[in-house]
Specification:
Strand content: under 5%
Number of strands: 0
Structural class: mainly alpha
Length: 146
């Protein structure tokens, strides 16, 4: 094998590994970070007020920091894949649905990145799991407190 083939193969393997990290990291962002934050708060605090004062700032800040890390990893992933940047100014994927363009033109102009798709899929999965847990496994009654 030539050096160019090895370089292409190593770039493809690194991009595949980063894709796995991005997808699993997105799931961890929406499911793992809150669960670990709630568990850690339960271990470190003894009162309900302490629990809330720990969870309310720590979980969202950790989620934002982890999301920023995932978007930085996505930039490296896109570079390894060799995705060319367009000359047009970059727009967020969600802004594409607000335009009146034809769908085919809109899809060509507003490209969805792996992190966008992974974050959306993992957020929907987390919401479904939350609703399933609430209605099927939560032990507190839904009636008035006594």
């Amino acid at each position: 094998m030539t050096t160019r083939t090895w370089n292409d193969l190593s770039r493809a393997m690194a991009a595949a590994a980063l894709a796995v990290v991005i997808v699993l990291g997105s799931a961890f962002l929406w499911i793992g970070v809150p669960v670990l934050g709630f568990w850690l708060a339960g271990e470190l605090t003894t009162t309900s007020q302490g629990y809330l004062f720990f969870v309310l700032p720590v979980v969202p800040v950790t989620m934002v920091a982890f999301g920023w890390l995932l978007y930085r990893l996505n930039a490296v992933y896109e570079t390894l894949r060799g995705t060319e940047a367009d000359d047009a100014p970059a727009r967020s994927s969600w802004l594409g649905s607000l335009s009146g363009e034809r769908e085919q033109m809109r899809r060509a102009r507003v490209r969805r990145t792996l992190v966008d798709v992974a974050m959306t899929a993992s957020a929907v999965t987390a919401m479904v799991l939350l609703v399933a847990w609430f209605f099927l496994f939560a032990s507190a009654p839904l009636g008035p407190m006594q």
